[in-house]
Design brief:
The chain has helices spanning 2-6, 8-43, 51-65, 68-91, 106-114, 137-141, 157-197, 199-204, 212-226, 228-244, 259-264, 269-286. It is mainly α and 287 residues long. The longest helix has 41 residues, at 157-197. It is elongated. The two termini are 14 Å apart.
C-alpha cells in the first residue's frame, strides 16, 4: 500500500516521464498525418467528411495531448488521496483495552481485535467464591456456601474444535485477502504507469471515430485501476471497524456445553459458527 499509493508519485516519475515523451512524439506524428488528410480533403472540397468539425477536434486534442500526463496524474492522485484517507482511518482505530493508546496497522488491528486464543475461556462461567458476592444466587444455584470455587471456565472439546477449525479458516481467508490485495496493488501500480505512458495516444484515439473505442477502453481502465485502491481500503476499514467495535466478538465467547447440547440449543455453538461465517464473508467482500 505504501509503495503503490504513498510513494506512487516518486517511484513512477522517471519511468513514466521517459515513456510519456516517446508516446507524445508518436502522437504528434499522428497529428501530422491527420492534418495532411484534412488538407487534402479541403483542397478536393470533400465537405461531406466534416473537415471543419474534425479540424476543431484536432486542435483541442492537440492541446490536451501536451497535458495528458497532468490530467491522468490528477485522476490517479485524487484516488490515492482518497485511498490514503481510508488507510489512515484503519490504522487509527484504537484497540479497546489498550493501555498505551497506540494506533496500529490494519493487520494488527484485526489480530488484536479478534484474539482467537481468548475464545477458549468462558467469560460467563458461574464461579462462587467469597471474593465475588455480587450475585448470591450464583452460589445458591449450586446449593453450596460462599467460599467454594468452581473451576469450570474451560471450553469443551467441541468448542475447541469449532474455534480451531473455523478460526484457521478465517485466518487463511484473511491471509488470502491480504495476499491477493497486495498482488492487485502491484498490478495496479504497473498498469497505471502504462496508462500514463500511453495517455498521449489515448487522447489521439479520441479524434477519429474508428479509434474512439480504444480511447474508451483506456478511460475505463484508468478509472477501474485508480479507484480500486480506495474501494478496497474502504471495505477493509469497514471490516476492521466492525471487529474493533466488538459487536461480533461479543457473540464469539465459547460456551461450556456438551456435545449433545451443542446441537440442541440454537443459541449455543451454532451461533458461534454463524459468527465466524459472518466475519469470513465480510473479509472476502473487502477483496
Amino acid at each position: 500500500i505504501t509503495y503503490s499509493i504513498g510513494k506512487f508519485a516518486g517511484t513512477s516519475k522517471e519511468i513514466v516521464e521517459q515513456g510519456w515523451m516517446i508516446s507524445r512524439d508518436i502522437a504528434n506524428m499522428f497529428f501530422i498525418f491527420i492534418l495532411l488528410y484534412i488538407s487534402i480533403a479541403t483542397i478536393l472540397q470533400l465537405s461531406g467528411y466534416g473537415m471543419k468539425e474534425l479540424l476543431v477536434t484536432v486542435i483541442i486534442i492537440a492541446l490536451l495531448v501536451n497535458f495528458s500526463l497532468v490530467i491522468t496524474r490528477f485522476i490517479i492522485d485524487g484516488s490515492n488521496v482518497l485511498a490514503m484517507e481510508f488507510y489512515t482511518k484503519a490504522t487509527q482505530i484504537k484497540i479497546k483495552g489498550s493501555t498505551t493508546g497506540e494506533f496500529v496497522s490494519p493487520s494488527t488491528a484485526i489480530m488484536a481485535s479478534f484474539k482467537p486464543q481468548s475464545l477458549f475461556d468462558n467469560k460467563d462461567v458461574k464461579v462462587c467464591n467469597k471474593y465475588d458476592l455480587k450475585d448470591p444466587t450464583r452460589c445458591a444455584e449450586y446449593s453450596t456456601a460462599p467460599g467454594t470455587v468452581f473451576e469450570n471456565g474451560d471450553a469443551t472439546l467441541i468448542n475447541i474444535g469449532i474455534i480451531t477449525i473455523l478460526g484457521s479458516v478465517m485466518f487463511l481467508v484473511l491471509a488470502f485477502v491480504f495476499f491477493a490485495g497486495a498482488v492487485l496493488f502491484v498490478i495496479r501500480t504497473v498498469v497505471l504507469w502504462l496508462l500514463m505512458i500511453f495517455s498521449p495516444l489515448a487522447f489521439v484515439a479520441m479524434v477519429l471515430p474508428a479509434t474512439k473505442g480504444y480511447a474508451s477502453q483506456w478511460w475505463k481502465k484508468l478509472f477501474d485501476q485508480a479507484f480500486f485502491a480506495p474501494v478496497y481500503l474502504f471495505l477493509l476499514y469497514l471490516v476492521i471497524a466492525i471487529l474493533s467495535s466488538q459487536a461480533i466478538i461479543k457473540g464469539l465467547d465459547a460456551e461450556n456445553l456438551t456435545l449433545s447440547s451443542t446441537f440442541m440449543s440454537p443459541a449455543s455453538n451454532v451461533n458461534l459458527i454463524l459468527k465466524f461465517v459472518v466475519m469470513i464473508v465480510l473479509m472476502i467482500a473487502s477483496l
